[in-house]
């Protein structure tokens, strides 16, 4: 074991990234881990819901258009769980006109392509205990 001390991994904020495009989840995972976050990824909303119940995330970043369960449905399902009302949810889409966002309880909507600096800034804003 090295003499270098580091924060316990469980103390780092956990971000759940949900997108059916693997390039997006891989890229966000790598960049966010470099910025001191733990990351779990899911390919669609139903997968994300299972993973969220296994280990509750501190914030969710989700695409809107996905198979099985889309981002709007995921947001509603998360809100229905204990603690879900206070969970920060960022929804993203390259075609916002295709979604009725008026009935969604997400915290923030970002149009794709999302620039990483903006995403990081918004995560830090939504997470009070951000690294």
Automatic annotation (TrEMBL):
Pfam families referenced in this protein's UniProt entry, alphabetically: Response_reg
Designated name of the protein: CheY-like chemotaxis protein
Source organism, top-level taxon: Bacteria
Entries under InterPro entries matching the protein: Bact_response_regulator (IPR050595), CheY-like_superfamily (IPR011006), Sig_transdc_resp-reg_receiver (IPR001789)
Alphabetic keyword roster: Phosphoprotein
Record PTM 4-aspartylphosphate, positions in chain: 63
Statement: the UniProt record of this protein carries the keyword Plastid: no
Domain Response regulatory, first and last residues per copy: 14-127
């Amino acid at each position: 074991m090295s003499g270098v001390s580091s924060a316990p991994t469980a103390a780092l904020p956990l971000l759940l990234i949900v997108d059916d495009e693997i390039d997006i989840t891989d890229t966000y995972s790598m960049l966010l881990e470099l910025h001191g976050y733990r990351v779990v990824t899911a390919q669609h909303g139903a997968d994300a819901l299972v993973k969220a119940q296994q280990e509750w995330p501190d914030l969710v970043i989700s695409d809107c258009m996905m198979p099985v369960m889309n981002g709007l449905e995921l947001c509603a399902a998360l809100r229905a769980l204990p603690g879900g009302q206070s969970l920060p949810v960022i929804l993203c889409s390259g075609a916002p006109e295709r979604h009725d966002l008026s009935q969604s309880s997400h915290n923030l909507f970002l149009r794709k392509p999302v620039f990483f600096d903006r995403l990081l800034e918004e995560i830090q804003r939504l997470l009070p205990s951000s690294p």
